[in-house]
Amino acid sequence: MNRARLDMPGRSSPMTEFDAVFVPHTAFTEVLKDIEDIFSVHGQLREAPNVFVTGPAGAGKTTMIELFLAAHPRVENGRRVSAPGGDAVCDDVPLLVSEMPSQPTVNSLARQLLKDLGHAFWNKGDRDALKNNLVGFAQDCGVKGVVIDEAQRAVDRDGEVRSEDIAEFLKELQGLLNVSFFLFGMGRVRGLFDHDDQVDRRWEEELAIPPYQWGADNADPEPESRLNFIAVLASMREQSPLPFANEIDVEMNDCAKQFYYASRGVVGLLKKLLLAAMRIAARDGDSVISSDLLYRAFEKAFRKEKKHERLINPWGQEWMGQAPPPLRDHSLPIRRKKPTKPNATKAERRNEIIAALSKR
What we know:
The protein contains twelve helices and eleven strands. The protein has two domains: 41-208, P-loop containing nucleotide triphosphate hydrolases (Rossmann fold), CATH 3.40.50; 225-310, Helicase, Ruva Protein, domain 3 (Orthogonal Bundle), CATH 1.10.8. By secondary structure, it is an alpha/beta fold.
């Protein structure tokens, strides 16, 4: 298992040191290679390919964007362009990285892209002016690819009209710029493309960063996904600033399954557990990562009573080796809560309160 560290300023404690640890695990590196392959064909095709990258929270999507951007960094004042009144300079931006606005519309997305590109008048103009400024400035800056993180916001708590409008806008931009778009988000981002075959045709198959699967305990041979998860866990142990106690033999299935249960195969949740352990160790004076420390870390790091699942502490007496509850399906849209009646009568309001108080 290869190892790497993300640069983090001011590392001074085991927790901050471990926070900088990055394990480029199998599911992650395969997707990163795919998006690099797509980026590398810029200018070679009449129609640049586009792709969306999905995965549950903690799968590593944000880290992947950071590494993708680090391989294609912005160069300040790296380009000279012709402008009215003489030549001008602008940044060389091979990869424009932005984030879907929290309340997305075509105009808010265009403004965000212009702002992240560095346009001086990013918040000026109507839809057509914003589009024209974006296309012209992106060409001046030499943009070859556009990354939009949190792309599922165009689907969440939203009606079909706005989502379709944003999808059409992305299609229009892609046609004018002929650069690849990379949408990162939850699986429900695919809802952006379902309404129109012309839009869907421009997007390649989803690139998923799935959680690792444990498989059946008695499977022979052991599932490759389980072995990959254990390899990630072992790599984190090797890079941990706090040593693991002898009792924590992560290469043995019984022990590794406890970590699998806590993380449900998501590398970000595994790291969350170990970061919580190091934070508690610094507070309580623990010198090793023991079963007792992991028990306390799980209690602090994870909500155990959610509407869609109930977690058991795998370092507690209640855990009997069972599989964890499934993660929430991130491909399903989040529906907006129904609003309360704005003009409820006094009697109706009283009935609502009584009903709320009587719930068990």
